[in-house]
């Protein structure tokens, strides 16, 4: 299934980039795993926590590519600006929705 608004985005390239980032972060996470406890190494713990969040977001973005909804805001359903997706390929919400979420 294809949605016209995502036609301009090179989805194949995006998917490869997301998969690359996912692999990279999983590798880092695996390396940090033995130390990633607040009592052992708080920095590693923090780092691995943020990697886990990103991995969840990247996985969700890959699922959206598979579902044909990639590039659409998961909150309002409007297309996410291409410039935003370039910077943050796994962005789930448009800038307006994201700023509301952060302000809340
Ligand atoms: Zn939105």
From TrEMBL:
Pfam families: zf-dskA_traR (PF01258). Keywords: Metal-binding, Zinc, Zinc-finger. InterPro entries: Znf_DskA_TraR (IPR000962). The keyword Cell membrane does not apply. Residues 68-102 form the Zinc finger DksA/TraR C4-type domain. A zinc finger (dksA C4-type) spans 73-97. Gene3D superfamilies: DksA, coiled-coil domain. This is Zinc finger DksA/TraR C4-type domain-containing protein. It comes from Microbacterium yannicii.
């Amino acid at each position: 299934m294809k949605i016209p608004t995502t036609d301009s985005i090179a989805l194949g390239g995006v998917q490869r980039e997301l998969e690359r980032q996912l692999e990279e972060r999983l590798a880092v996470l695996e390396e940090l795993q033995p130390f990633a406890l607040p009592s052992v190494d708080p920095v590693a713990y923090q780092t691995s926590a943020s990697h886990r969040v990103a991995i969840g977001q990247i996985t969700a973005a890959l699922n959206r590519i598979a579902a044909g909804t990639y590039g659409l805001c998961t909150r309002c359903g409007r297309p996410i600006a291409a410039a935003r997706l370039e910077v943050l390929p796994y962005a789930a919400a448009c800038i307006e929705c994201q700023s509301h979420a952060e302000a809340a």
